[in-house]
Amino acid sequence: MQDLCGKLSGSAQQLCYQYVGAAKEDAWDAAAAWRRTSPESFACSGIEVECLQEDMLSSKVGSACRPLAEGAQCELGKHCSSGYCRGQRTPSTDDSSHKQQQQGGEDEGAAAPRSLLAQMVQPVAAWPTATVSVSSGSSARRVPETFLSTSHEYNRIHDYGDERNVASWAEVFKMLSPSPIIRVGGASQDKMTQVPDDATWKALKLLQQKTNARFILGLPLWPKNATAMGKQIIAASKKYLGNSVIVYELGNEPEFWPTGLGGYDAKGKWKPGIDAYAKWFDVVARQVNPCNHREDPKFLSGPGWGNVNTQPTSWLARVLYTGKDCYLAETNIHYYPYIDNTTVTPKQLLSQSLQDFGLSKYGEYQRLVEKEKLGVRISETNSLYGGGKVNMSDTLIGGLWVADALFAFARAGAKGFHLHWGIGGHPTGDLGQPNTGVQTNFYYKYKNATYEFKQLQALRVDASKLEKPVPWPSVHAPWYGYLFWTIAAAGKYNSKSDATFVNTKVEDKGKCGANMKVWALRADNGDLRIALINKDDAINCNMKLWIDDKRFCRTASISKLLPGQAGIKSKGNITWQGQTYENAGFTGKIQGSTVVIQIESKQYPKVGKCGFEVPVPASSAALLVAKKATK
Questions:
Q1: pLDDT, tens digit, for every residue of 75-113?
Q2: Per the UniProt record, which residue ranges are transmembrane (predicted)?
Q3: CA–CA distance, 427 with 415 (Å, rounded to integer)
C-alpha cells in the first residue's frame, strides 16, 4: 500500500497515507473518507471487505489490502494507471449517492440591524408587512408526543452518564421531554469490532435513571458477524436498560460504507448492489428479531439511508415489503440539506427552495410507508452533513434552520426528528462538530482549580497524569431553536407535545420575502400557538395575523428569540423568552427570568376578522400564544 501512496498526489496521497496509518476502527473512517473524496484512486487501492475487516482488527500500522496492479481493470472500461482508475467511466447509481447538489442563491447580505428591543410589540411603520390568515378550527397533522430528539455516536455516549456531572446533562435532556428519546448509532455502529463495554452500559443506565430516557440503539450490519454482535447488544441493553429501548436500528447509511452498498451471500462472500444488501438485511433481521409466531414482537428499524434526497424509494420498498410483517416496527432515513457544505451561504441554507426540495423527496417516502401503516423516523439530521460548517451551523443560522425544519417535517408527517451531535466532544477540545446543539466540553482539576486541556498544555502540565476530565454541557446557538420548538409544541419544558397543526394562508407577503415563515398549532387546552420565524438576515417584517375565531382575539402573549450582537451570525448572547445560557457554568441550567409580553388584539372589519400585528426583526423569531375565551 505504501507504494501506491507514493504514486498519488495531493489529497489522494494524503488519504492513502491516512488509511495506512489508521489503526483498528479508524481504518473504517479513513477508507470511507478516501472512497468519498477521491474515488478514482480508491478504486485502485484494493480495499475489499475481507482486508478492511482484517485492518480493523489489527493494531499494527500498515494494511493487509493489496492495491491493484498497473493496468489492472478497476471498473468497466477503465484501468489503473499510476494509482488512478482512468478511462471512459460508466455512471453508476452508487456514484450519485455521494454528490451534493450545488444550489443557486444570492451572496450573503449585510448583517441584521441591532436595534432589536426585547419589549418591541408594536408594528414599525417603516417595515414591510405580510398578512397571513389562520384557520383555528382546521386540523392537519398531530405533532408526535416526542418529536424533537437527539442522535449520538457510540464512541463517547458514556460522557452523558458520567456520575460526576450526570445531573447537568439531565438538565439539558429533560428540557425536551419528560421521557426524551436518545438515538445511539451512526457510523460507529457499523465499524465496531466489539460491542460496547460494561462501563458504557452503566453510564447509559445512569443517564436513563436521571432523565427517564428512552433509547434507539444501532446494531451493526456491515460486519460478517453482524448477527452475533447484534444479539449481544440486544442482550446487554435488556440487562442494563430494561424496557427503555423502543427500537433497534439495523445498519447505518449503507450506501456510504467503504465497500459500497452490498451484503454477504449464503457462502459468506461479499456481493455489491441493492439486491445483495436487501437479502443480507433480511437474513440478519430474521436472526436477531425472529418472527416464528404471530405474537412475536417487531423491534427493528431500517434501512437508515444516508440522505432522503439521494436514494430512490424503490430501495426502501425492497426492505419494507420484506420486513413489514415480520420484524420492522418502523422505518428510518436520514436527512441533510442537498447542498455543498463547503460553498453554501447562509441565504442558500435557509432558502425555502432548499427546504421544499427536501420535503418533496421526503414526501415520497412518507406516502410509501403510510400505505403499510408504519412510521418514518428521521433518525439522523442536521443543518449540514459532515458535522456542519464553522461560523454557520454553530450560529443562529443553525438555530433558525433547526426551528423551521422541526415545524416543516412534523407537518409533513415524520415520526421523529433526531438532531445528530456526533461524539459530542473530546477531552482535547478538537472534535466537537459545529452543528451540535449542546457540545461536550471537559475540565480537568489541577491545584484546586479547573482547566481545559489546552490551558494545561500552555502551563506544560501533563493531563494524562491527572484525574480523568469531567464532561459538561456547553450550549451552542442551535439549541435555542430546540427550545423555541419545545414551547411551541408542548407549551412548557419537560412536557409532551400536545398540539395539532392548523392551516395558514399567506394573503399578502408584501416585501417580507419567502424567508418569513408562519406555523400555527392548536393545543389540547385550546390555546392557539403561532410561530413566526424571520430567517432573513436583513429584512425586518411586521406580521399581520387574521384569525377566523373571535374567541382568540382578546389578548395574547409574545415570546421572542433574539440574536446577539452579531445578528444571524451570533454564537453567543442569544436569548429566548429573555433567558440565556450565558454564565451557566458547568450546570446545564438556563439562566434568567422568563420574559413573556402581553399584546392587544386588532379588528379588521373589511374582512370580518380579528387578529394581531407583531414586529419580527430580521434574524429572529416570535411565538404568539392566544388563549380561547370561554365566554
A1: 888 999 999 999 853 333 333 322 222 222 223 333 333
A2: none
A3: 34
